[in-house]
Amino acid sequence: PLLKHHSILNNFSANVKNCHSQAMAERVSLSSMLAKSQNELPAKRMKDSYLEVHLPLGSEPQLREKYLTYHNTVRFGRILEDLDSLAVLISYSHTYNSELKRSPLSIVTALVDKIDMRQHVIYPDCDIKFTGHVTWVGKSSIEAKIHMSQYRDGAYASVLDATFVMVARDPGNKRAAFVNPLKPEGPEEERLFQEGEANKSRRVELSTASLLKVAPTQEERTVVHGLFLNTLDTNTVSFRSRVLPPSSVWMEDAKLKGLEICHPQERNIFNRIFGGFLMRKAYELGWANACSYGGCRPSLVAVDDILFQKPVEIGSLLMLSSQVCYTQGTYIQVRVHSEVFDPLTRQHNTTNIFHFTFTSDRDVPNIMPKTYGGEPVQTGNSKKNLKNQIYIHVSKFLSK
Ligand SMILES: CCCCCCCCCCCCCC(=O)SCCNC(=O)CCNC(=O)[C@H](O)C(C)(C)COP(=O)(O)OP(=O)(O)OC[C@H]1O[C@@H](n2cnc3c(N)ncnc32)[C@H](O)[C@@H]1OP(=O)(O)O
Known about the structure:
The protein is of the alpha+beta class and 400 residues long. It contains eight helices and twelve strands.
């Protein structure tokens, strides 16, 4: 009987694989429906993509279990998943073509530009409302803004504002595909569109400001040098001999790592790992690190620049590493880096970088880097250290 079960299971997984390859082959056949240029697509209005979605946590208690933390608050990782799905849905509404039965576009999350928290606590027994629409488009990219509010004491109160950048690809997710132009109507929509345009320029500027390409700014240099002088051993005065100042923690001692095996259950409609799942896992690891660093349960203040660099394939080994990279008073900033590891070729590839800012109920120790890369330099591994680009966050944090 065991053997029989085994063969049933084998058949089942072969069937699942076949269904997916068949679905993918069907998707690729939609390529002929793609627009050859953006001009041939009709311009859409912001209201064409407007969506309002209710999450009835208050009125449907059976839903709560999925969202509940042990401490009777809402799991923010679940909210990240919902925001991601909603951003996809908004993008599909913008690109909807009533003449086609199916959309030829694969829409993927490229960036969570920012999420600003308007309040720290999300109540598990109050209804939640999400509203959002497209605010800007490029040729193949779409900016979508989502507002989340919660019903309490007879009115909806703001919880957060999120900005996503989604990218349209061909059905096989190989190349960029054109999206409908956007036609703002009235001064408010014009303002949102101009803001989107400015965001696009800022993103391009930021992507060229990596420490791997350019030197740190004067402000960053001053902060970094100040930290270095603070840790200098006055007896030996050598680069290597360093002393940890009081109420401080070395950066190398403020890490937390995790591993995810990417099972098919977490795949999206394009047979890759769902972006929301990656965000939830990274958030939970980042939160656990901030919690252990601050010695109390921290609250999330902001999410910045979640960059989806490469898709995560089903079956990958996903390594997540979180690092406390900046602290100030009660604030803790955590960066989570995720990479897929191929155990056969032993190759590592960065797929995502996440930034979370938390606040604690008390002042936290100061985080102290020992080196430019944030970690002690090990022979033969200095390139990997530099990759961490810890100090880019210093200026980001100070400019908030
Ligand atoms: C039908 C209704 C269904 C509803 C279902 C609901 C539930 C749905 C659930 C399903 C959930 C599914 C959702 C998921 O789970 S998606 C899963 C998570 N996301 C990923 O796996 C994506 C991984 N990353 C990539 O594949 C690439 O890096 C992408 C494709 C993103 C870009 O690759 P590449 O750089 O080579 O592309 P390009 O040079 O051709 O540029 C193309 C455009 O992209 C713009 N760009 C690129 N990067 C950025 C950036 N960082 N900030 C801002 N913009 C950026 C760029 O400016 C250009 O814009 P434009 O000038 O053309 O305008």
